[in-house]
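The material for today's practical consists of a large collection of protein records. Getting from the letters to the tokens is the skill we practise here. To make this concrete, we reproduce a full record directly below:
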Amino acid sequence: MYIICTNGHLTWNKPSFPRKLNNFWKCPLRVLVWNESPILNFNQNDDLVSGIDYYVLEFLREIMNFSLFPILTPSRGNVYLNGTSNGAFKLLQAGYGDLMLGCSICSRVRRTFFTSTVFYFTTPVNLIVKPTETYHALEILLFPFDFYTWLVILILVIGRRIGPMMLLRTSIKFKLTLFPWLFGVLILRSSYEGSVFRFLHNRPKRPIPNNFKEALQSGYHFISDNKLNIFLKDFTELDSKLTLYDFPKSKMFDKLNELEGKNVLITRLELYVGDEFNTSIFHMLRKLRSPIVYNFACMYMPKYSFLAAELDIRIDQLTTHGFMKRILDKSLIPGLTWNRRRKNRKEAKSMSVEHLSGTFQLLIAMMGMAFCVFVMEILMVHWNN
């Protein structure tokens, strides 16, 4: 509608081409859904009761004034390059539904054979790894200095032994070289002690990669469930390094924990609920800093559906005015956050005798060598006599 002025009077006039889909007048809208928590939750009577997309549907139903007619399907299914599909996509393609949602990923193949809306929900696809091993005790002793620094120390030790033999202790050259040698030893000793103390105080472990590229370069193997294969196909680097499992997503954490070696789990961490996995295993794992990709969820309709333009307008209202954030806060279980620190700083022991085991091992080895030399000298004296 718009307002026109005629002879000084304001009158309402209807537009020539009014929008017909902004009000359905309680007409039923067939929506294809399936049970997948926390996106869509059903009760024992197969009634849709809660979930992220349930509240999205309630928002659309109230704004567009349609009656919801949900059709429960076994699974989402998939769409293939030749145009065939299965699951809910097959029913939608056959005309048994008007709309399909359920956090379905926006992809080029699906948009080729179906009409989709703009994305309304975004979740990162995270990379999860097992905690790395601690450094060996002998590695801690060698850690503070690199190869060239240890080479300088070796040269200083050799110079300390050879120098007095080449130069007289009373000569000026010996006195001039003694002070720089002592000063260098003092600097190296102070640096070594400070570095080792800081290293042990931070309870160090072997570093984990920060992103997908570093994980590839470090030789990690990747695992995931079949549902995420739709966008993992675009990563050609994963052709020989990816293993897909037909497990429920709640079992993928257990599978990662069982595997030996360096493995990375690719999963959508934000869509897990608290009772779907073993929390003790969950908090033992580590999440990489950068996700591999972001998952954009769209609503799908039959090809050339007239609902797309109207739904795009409503989804824009849903996302820009903060309604989607309220829906996520209501649907996702609070407290399911990634706890990177498993222990409190006050409870964790920063240093212990275990960290100094390398020093004792090295000391025992040198004392053993000295004892062997002492025994050999005694034997040689007896042999000469």
